[in-house]
Amino acid sequence: MKCKLFVFLFLFLMAPVSALAGGFCCQMPAGVEQNGLSGAGSISLSADYDYSRMSRFVEGDSYKSLNAVLHDPRFTPMMGRGVVPEVMDMHRITLTAAYQPTDRLVLSLSAPWVINDMTMRMWMMGKWTRMTMDQVSGFGDMTLSGSYRLYQDQDTRPRTALWVGAGLKFPTGSSTVDEGGKRIHAHMQPGTGSWDPILSLDFIKMLSSDFLLKADASYHFSTPNHLDYSYGDTASLDTALAYNLTDYMNVSLGVNYFHSEQADDPDNKYNGKVSSRLTDFAGYTGEDSIWIYPSVRIMPFAGAGIDLKFQYPVYYHVPDIEFVTDFRLTAGISYSF
């Protein structure tokens, strides 16, 4: 499936490029809009592929090597088993449909498919053994959201706009996948099993025909699932400056701050109280991180878009010790009509 998506992206890139008038103001006929939509009655369809690689450890705000973690006495108990992850690859393919019933309101529905792979080390009988988990894949949690343009500087083709949004993530993905009769790591599950409200705020301003400033904030409330596990609330602040490089290509440079509260597993349904399992212990979750990202948007013809983004963390701070993300790559295609 991943290969097919990249082939589709490549063929889409090779499509004939129609002539577009230069500048952001001409690329967005209704002014600063959400989801690439162009006004009341328009519809947008998109597909996004997100890949995250995890192979690094952070303690406090310092990186630790795998070898140092394997020699940490917390993960080599006299009794029981210690578990240390080695590499985790997380793939997410998300289909989104958006509809703009009025000039100020956008409604969207997103449906993800999740694929997770992980190799780990397990401490058994006084030695570390490398193990590979069975691939975890399945339908994830869907999200329904709405965004309303609270402010715009002018009625026709606004250059400055402020959007407020609210959404709900609902538990369509499984949160009880097991391996060998034991429930797997909570954060490897395709779904969370919880109903989570989401709030957002988006600011967009055209600085000129060639420069666009974007800033957004979001807060995700994590509620306990049916097993009383809570993944922890998350908050995100993001800002990016986009430049109109050519008539059909924009490039951006952005910075993102991400905060996550610690998870909670009061009934120990996901081994969240077993501190020798770095993959599972709830105390090894939660973070503050700062990411930088370049991105590019290509518009091969009217209504179509191709987006590529690479995110890299430049700062981590965690409450204890944690397995963290090395980088994240996102590729997407969209079409609005």
Report on the structure:
The protein is built from 3 helices and 17 strands. The model is unreliable at 1-22 (pLDDT under 50). Strand 4 (105-124) and strand 5 form a beta hairpin. The strands form 2 sheets. It has a 12-stranded antiparallel beta barrel. The chain has helices at residues 2-13, 24-27, 66-70, and strands at residues 43-59, 62-64, 82-99, 105-124, 127-132, 136-139, 142-152, 160-170, 178-179, 182-183, 196-206, 211-220, 234-246, 249-260, 287-298, 304-317, 321-336. The chain is mostly beta strands. It has a single domain, classed as Beta Barrel (Porin), CATH 2.40.160.40. The longest helix is centred in the first third of the chain and has 12 residues, at 2-13.
Write a brief caption for the model:
The protein has 337 residues and is mainly beta.
Shape: elongated
Please give the number of β-strands.
17
Stretches where pLDDT falls below 50 for ≥5 residues?
1-22
Which assembly state applies to the chains in this document? single chain
Average pLDDT taken over every residue: 90
CATH-derived topology: Porin
Structural class: mainly beta
